[in-house]
Amino acid sequence: MPGNPLTDPNWADDTTDTVVRLVGTVRDKATTPVVYAARALVFGVIAVFLGLFALIILLIGLTRGIQSGLGAVVDHDRAVYISYLAVGGIFSLVGLLLFKKRNSSAA
After folding, report:
1. 2 band by pLDDT with thresholds 50, 70 and 90
2. Helices within the chain (DSSP H only)
3. Which of 9, 33, 39, 43 has minimal CB crowding within 10 Å?
């Protein structure tokens, strides 16, 4: 009788292999997707923070570049106000375009 541990010399090895295979299957079905989801979440959060950081640095550089360019034409105080007006105008135009397109796919 192969299922009898008293007469089957391979019973312990077969049982151990079965348990190891079962644990591996459960781990692959339960743990692996959770690990992938956690990695995606962590890398996504890091990417969002780095993207926001890059956007902020780009905006600061754009504003300072406009101020430097205008510094040769007008005094520093006026260059600051004009640069703020230019960057604010760009944001306003982009916002208006996005606001106009918000329902274009629904129509």
Report:
1. low
2. 11-71, 76-101
3. 9
